[in-house]
Structures are given as C-alpha cells and as structure tokens.
Design goal:
Rossmann fold, DNA polymerase, domain 1, 2 domains, 6-stranded parallel β-sheet, 12 helices, 12% strand, hydrolase activity, HAD_sf, HAD-like_sf
C-alpha cells in the first residue's frame, strides 16, 4: 500500500477544516517569549541571565509541566504557577532575589494577551473557507476558557463553528477521541474533514489515526519525519469507510497553500482518486 500522502497542490474536497491554535493560527511562541522577557526583565538584570539561557530553561520546563497538565496531574493554573516556580528556582537557586513566582506568573500571563497576533495567512484562509461554506473547527490541547479568551483577543471567535479543548473534555491530542468529538459536534464524517496543525505527531498523526485527513503546517520547513510505507502503520486498518480524506496527509508551508473545496462541489467518485494520486 502506498504511503498516505497527497501530492503537492492536491485539491481536497471537504465538509470541514479543523485547526490547532498555537503556532498554527496564533503566533504563540513569539508572544510567550515576549511576555516572559517582560515579566522577568528585572530578575534577569539582577542575576545577569542572558536571553538564550532563559528560553532554553523555559522550553524545557514548559514541556515537563505542560505534560503534567495534559495528564490531569495539575489543573491549568497550577501548571502555570509550577512552571514559573521551577523557572525561578533554576535562575536563582540561592534565592538572591526572593521574587514571588506567583506574582511574576501573574504579570507574564496578563501581558501575554497583548502580544498574541495572527500569522498573516490566517484571515485570508478563514475568509476563503467562509465564502465556500466550509465549517471551521478548533481542537486544542489547552484550557478551554484560556483558549476561548485567546480567540476573542485575536478576533477569531466569529470564524469558529466549534472549539474542543482538552481541558474541557479530559482527553488530548493525539488521542483519536478528541478528533472524533470535534467532528461529531460539526456533524461531519471524519473522512470528510481535515485537521491542520504544526506538530507532526500530535496533530497530523493524531488526525490520521482518527480517520481525518492530516495537514502538517510546516512553517519553518523542518525536515519531514519518516513516513510509514503502509497507511495502516499510521491510521490503523482500513475499515471500509469513505477513503476520500481519512487516510491522507499533506504538508504545507503556509495556509495560503491549503487547497480545499466544498465536498458537494466534487462529482461522482473522482474525489478519492484525485486526492490519492
């Protein structure tokens, strides 16, 4: 069986497109680094910590503490505070500055919403989907209230037909259950939807395992991970359902490259064959 990859430029017939939020629609990394630098400016000055060291520590500790949130060990606010406490402990193990990690985290979390921005290709993409009558959904590994506030901040809430967040439903990507829940809320068969995200395994592989088409948004043009030679290595065995999208993935560098049309606009059985070439 050939690898489940759509050829470059393939037009995908869909009823819905679902998106990740952070670093897919919203420049989360840029906002996070700006807010962190602002909140820790005085501390870093006192301790003479360079920006590179700060970023390295933050990313390492974020992976660890966010994993505890996704596993259910910590709630979202406890995760935020634990992450900042760990960061300050690494920066200042002797507690020379005696800063309260909760106050520093509050400043960081309050300021970050002023730094959130959309990538330039987002609104044109969502405008196209709206004009075509294609449903738009969100699946996010985060706290629901936090992400809905983020969507309102950047003006995306009006484009979204449904938003499913792990903090609300108790399951996170790449578990197929969260993808299934989102398409059920849209009233769409998984094979008639695609999911777009910036993380290969969490987003693309997760979507494929749930029976959706997976679109890897590779803005930084990172090397593509090795792709299994058999579709079932990623997707599981073919259950005989409509194969139009649910066993395909595509790689794009920008949302300008997302080629979709309403599924109703394609005729007969051509869609599956065209998309599989």
């Amino acid at each position: 069986m050939p690898e489940p990859r759509a050829a470059a430029g393939t037009v995908l017939p869909v009823e819905a497109v679902l998106f990740d939020i952070d670093d897919t629609l919203v420049d989360f990394h840029g906002a996070a680094m700006s807010a962190l630098a602002e909140a820790t400016a005085v501390i870093r000055g006192q301790l003479e910590v360079d920006a590179g060291r700060l970023v390295e520590l933050w990313e390492s500790l974020n992976d660890r503490e966010y994993g505890r949130f996704l596993s259910g060990e910590l709630d979202f606010d406890a995760m935020r505070n634990a992450r900042m406490q760990a960061l300050l402990g690494e920066l200042d193990p002797e507690r020379v500055t005696a800063w309260d990690h909760r106050l520093v985290e509050e400043q960081r979390n309050s300021s970050i919403f002023g730094f959130y921005t959309l990538f330039p290709d987002v609104r044109p993409c969502l405008d196209r989907l709206r004009e075509q009558g294609i449903a738009v959904g969100i699946i996010s590994n985060s706290d629901g209230d936090y992400q809905r506030r983020k969507l309102r901040t950047v003006g995306l809430h009006e484009f979204v037909d449904t938003a499913v967040c792990s903090g609300d439903v108790g399951v996170s990507k790449p578990d197929p259950a969260i993808f299934t829940l989102a398409v059920e809320q849209l009233g769409v068969h998984p094979a008639h939807a695609v999911y777009v995200g910036d993380r290969w395994f969490t987003d693309t592989v997760g979507a494929l395992r749930a029976g959706l088409g997976g679109v890897w948004l590779n803005r930084e043009r990172r090397p593509r991970p090795e792709v299994p030679t058999a579709a079932e290595d990623v997707c599981g065995p073919d259950d005989g359902s409509d194969p139009t999208l649910g066993r395909l993935f595509a790689e794009i560098g920008s949302l300008d490259d997302l080629r979709v049309v309403p599924r109703s606009a394609r005729t007969g059985g051509a869609a599956a064959g065209d998309a599989a070439r």
